[in-house]
Design a protein that fits this description.
300 residues; mainly alpha; 3 strands
């Protein structure tokens, strides 16, 4: 193991143990730092103190040329900045080559969103009369009905369900806990799945029953990758190409706001730390904004 590889492992351990970063964030940082090490090695840089600002800027430029989005490039730079800051603080390195390297300005991109008719076509389509079909319907209904992230849905345990009270206990980014309302068709689909199909899937488990709500064909917790594939498949069936679980979350937020939901309430449901994040979902068209203005302003 080279000095740089060892330094990266120590930094990743610090992020996991002392900073409590989520597994998904740790995996992303590990990929970014692996790419960074490979780039430096290709440039003949093996000594930590031999890394210069120009090396870091060249790495960022290479990521940009490879077609990475601004958000991904900034995450890579954040990982690299954090690494060198950590090394200086720990006395491993004397140089901080990223101190004056600035993040790229990110273009504001509106999230993908389905129309209400598209959501209806997706959720009202005939699902297979199997245990897996009942599970898939419940997953899609809960994604849209509760605005959950993919990791939040797959992370649900049966102990997180308070269906009699109409709530789910959800653990979001940074393992922050929140209660999310569930009712209507989402509640009906989830309750129906729990009453029968889940037990059928659980019967295939080789060991004890999993606490996970949503199970795969082996009776264990379904993965995010499987969820993505399932969502994309059902979307394609009704003519929606490239459907992603997060699109259903965006659609939930957009339709809630269009229906009159308070932005602060929506922030709480979505688990956003900042109201500014929630405002990204307010891509209401100008015609609707004009109609609201005309209806609300006393001198319009």
């Amino acid at each position: 193991m080279t000095a740089l590889e060892r330094a990266c492992e120590e930094y990743m351990s610090y992020l996991a143990v002392e900073r409590g970063y989520s597994r998904n964030t740790l995996e992303a940082y590990r990929r970014d730092l692996s790419a960074y090490r490979a780039f430096l090695s290709g440039c003949g840089v093996e000594d930590l103190d031999g890394v210069t600002r120009a090396d870091v800027e060249d790495f960022i430029a290479a990521r940009r040329e490879e077609g990475y989005a601004s958000s991904s490039i900034n995450r890579s730079l954040s990982a690299v900045k954090g690494l060198h800051r950590f090394l200086v603080r720990e006395g491993v390195s004397e140089e901080h080559p990223t101190a004056s390297v600035r993040f790229s300005r990110q273009e504001e991109r509106l999230p993908d969103c389905l129309s209400i008719d598209q959501v209806g076509a997706l959720l009202d389509q005939p699902f297979p009369p199997t245990d897996a079909g009942a599970r898939d319907r419940a997953m899609l209904e809960v994604l849209y009905g509760c605005g959950l992230r993919a990791s939040e849905l797959t992370g649900l345990d049966t102990g997180d369900l308070y269906l009699d009270d109409g709530y789910l206990r959800v653990f979001g980014k940074g393992s922050k806990e929140r209660l999310v309302p569930i009712m209507g068709t989402a509640l009906d689909a989830l309750a129906s799945y729990l009453e029968g199909a889940r037990m059928g899937l659980a019967s295939h488990a080789r060991s004890g029953m999993s606490p996970a709500v949503f199970l795969n064909a082996h009776g264990t917790r379904i993965s995010r990758q499987s969820l993505h594939a399932i969502v994309e498949r059902y979307g394609r069936t009704v003519g929606i190409e490239g459907l992603h679980p997060h699109t259903l979350r965006h659609s939930f937020a957009t339709h809630m706001l269009a229906g009159g939901a308070d932005l602060r309430v929506l922030q709480e449901i979505l688990g956003h730390a900042s109201i500014a994040t929630t405002q990204i979902y307010t891509h209401i068209d100008r015609t609707q904004l004009r109609e609201v203005y005309l209806a609300a302003h006393p001198r319009a």
